[in-house]
Amino acid sequence: MTLHHDIPPGGAEIQPPVQLGHLRDGGLVAIREVERRDAARLPELAMRAIYPGGIPSPVAPETRRGLQDLAAVDHREAECLLAVDPLTGAPVGIASYRPCDRHGCAEVDVLVRDGRRGRGAGTALLESLADVARSRGLHGFTKRVCAQDDRMLEMLDRLGADCREGHGDEVEVEVPLGDGEGLGAALGGALWAVARGGLLPVGGVMPPQTYV
Fold first, then answer.
1. What secondary structure letter does DSSP report for 202?
2. Which architecture does CATH list for 3-204?
3. What is the pTM of this model?
4. 128 near 21, Cβ under 8 Å?
5. C-alpha dihedral sign at 113, 62, 200, 208
């Protein structure tokens, strides 16, 4: 993905540097590091249109705090990238990683807001996040997933992910990042399977069903 400093004509003012992520329907998202000033808007990502007319559901206090905390990552040991609508500046999704107990790995999370899923925003975020992780010497992403989903675990194993025993009903999955840029077919498929399989929350508070 190419680094851009230009904002599309008529677009919102987005501080550079940003990357323009291309969606499956031809649209764009602007991807950049999350900043402290984003804290107030990050809870919008957890709103779900569950009422007639698209009225969003309220955001639980613990979810709000968990998302707002992501605005304070150090951009060294941990990272969080934000995708926004380049025309309005509204948050579309986030992808983050934070240190884990496996050397050279970090635990990954991704969340795309209701109504913007299935278009590729999560994939674009993960591509950028993987590139950042490689540049900082990381070689894998990890995630805890449900140990009872045998079909998903078999898929992850075929895609080259390392599934290890976790705690209780969880299995810890490690997805190697490889040496190239972006995701590639195997990494993209594995991360997609993890996300669709139900990523556990950032700090235990991310809403269920995360789609990319």
1. G
2. 3-Layer(aba) Sandwich (3.40)
3. 0.78
4. yes
5. negative
- Tell me whether the omega of the peptide bond preceding residue 207 falls within 30 degrees of 0, making it cis: no
What DSSP assignment string belongs to 16-44? SSEEEEEPTTS-EEEEEE--GGGTTTGGG
Q: Report the distance separating Cα 165 and Cα 144, nearest Å.
A: 10
Q: Distance between CA atoms of 133 and 26, rounded to whole angstroms?
A: 27
d(CA 47, CA 157) in angstroms, rounded, equals 33
pLDDT tens, residue by residue, 104-129: 999 888 888 888 888 888 888 888 99
d(CA 112, CA 42): 11
Answer yes or no: are the C-beta atoms of 83 and 90 closer than 8 Å.
no
φ, ψ for residue 159 (rounded to 5)? -85, 5
pLDDT single digits (tens) 4-55:
333 344 444 445 467 888 888 888 999 999 999 999 999 888 887 555 556 6
CB atoms near residue 137 (< 10 Å): 7
Residues 13 and 53: their CA atoms lie apart, in Å, by 29
CA 118 remoteness from chain centre? 13
119 closest CA partner among 13, 28, 3, 12? 28
What is the C-alpha to C-alpha distance for residues 160 and 142, in angstroms, rounded to an integer? 13
Nearest-angstrom CA–CA distance, 163 and 22: 31
